[in-house]
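Notebook entry, cofactor series.
This is the third protein in the set we're modelling with a bound small molecule. For this one the ligand is zinc ion. I'm keeping the input format identical across the series so the outputs can be compared line by line later. Sequence and SMILES below, as received.
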Amino acid sequence: MNRKLLNRKKMLCLSCMEEHEVEMVSYIDKNIFKGVSVEFPAEYYYCSRTEEYYADEIQMCANDISMKDAYRQKQRLLTSKDISAIREKYGISQSDLSLLLGWGKKTITRYEGHQVQDAAHDTILKKLRDDPEWFLALLDLVKESFTESSYAKYRTKAIRIFEQERDQYLRKAIFAQYARFSDNFEYSGNVRLSLDKVVDVIRYFSNAPQVIKLYKVKLMKLLWYSDTLSFKRRGHAITGLIYQALPMGAVPIAHDSIIDLYGVDYDEVELGDGTGYYFKKSVNEQYQSLSKEDMDILDEIIRVFGSCTKDTIIHAMHMETAYVKTASRAVISFQYAKELSIP
Ligand SMILES: [Zn+2]
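Returned structure with ligand:
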């Protein structure tokens, strides 16, 4: 048997009922549970006089959970630790999670202990782990059962998780759209795409009081001008966005997605010619990903274009060499940056 010595102490030995030095050991134990043979780490005392292994109450309890977790793993069920990790994720107590799922008050406590959950409950717990939106829906259904403060606490936390997970997914989708350009530094302006910088630059513009009427078309031009001026002055862009020449000027690839990144706030408004996206001030006025030099470039762009209308900036863009020399819908190369109208 491959046993590991954990400790040795003088105590009343429950095997021979004498006081002597007893070994505390661990080894991989075997058992059959619900017809399934399982192997699990277990801890025991060992009496060298009787050559017997035995467990006290605490060890018995821990060994039982260890055995059941081994069974759960073998059956691809959540282990007791997996279940408590779901509660930690949402910051919810055992009884409140039971309540949320419409189960008996002690159900989750039991599942984190000796009772193995059935497959149906296991599926529900996994869904809840992976779907914060469903957590929010359930929470609203049982709202009345919680105190106001518990409800508010769980809701805030779940919304935050929901937004973060959605943002991670969105970021992956954006990087996927950029993957085929990953080695083309002429297109990205000598830097790799930084979505943190994209978010900070957008917030920097929407928070600047000198920038008026910041709708999407204008914002897209401000981004291109910022990256291009940065490239002209320093040999590299700020964000790593790649721009295409569209009829209204430069527009970054994945433009629909970048405005939905966490931290960017806009209102959808009905304009004469369709829906407009109006970018709002954000509460957060920290720009952790931007350097002082980045912000100097942005300030220069704000000075030139902050107060101009969408039509003025489109017109300016149409006159830029980079735009004139790029075929319609093609990617705009940063090689034209030296001819930018802004010195
Ligand atoms: Zn003994």
